[in-house]
Hints:
The chain has 171 residues and is α/β, with parallel strands linked by helices. The chain has one domain: 3-Layer(aba) Sandwich (Leucine Aminopeptidase, subunit E, domain 1), CATH 3.40.220.10. It has helices at 32-41, 43-53, 89-106, 126-140, 157-170; strands at 3-8, 18-22, 61-65, 73-77, 111-114, 149-154.
Amino acid sequence: MTQLTVVEGDITRLEVDVIVNAANSALAGGGGVDGAIHRAAGAEKLQAACRLLGGCSTGSAKATPAFALPAQAIFHAVGPIWRGGSQGEAELLASCYRQCIAMAEAERYQSIAFPAISCGVYGYPLDQAVVIAVDTVRSSLAFNTSLEQVIFCCFDGEMAERYHRVLNTAD
């Protein structure tokens, strides 16, 4: 059974097979976790690898090597910009998590770390995003899985508490 854990800290320092990046559709790097991942991986090499991918549509994910990160791969997931909730945001956000789990399965990875996709500058309400993240990951893991560990990496205690609350009430 896959272990779901919550970690408060810097996702770029986690020793996992896959680090998920909350990317923009151009895969160009940016602020928040996206910028931190680019800097920690080696911005020049990661940007060159991302340019070869030709962007990524919202709700999808694409992979690059992890370069200087303590991981094997980075999955660049493009979450939706919050527009009030009636523009298909929930399905697009869930799709990011489903695609990352499926990509990890295809490569037989054993561990993956997710940030709170779309919860920074994209403005997705954290309480709703956490429920979508946990529910989608759980349902995606209901099938045979190579993943032994899924980490929800939070940048502060308030976010970590929300993940803990959802994980504990959903058990």
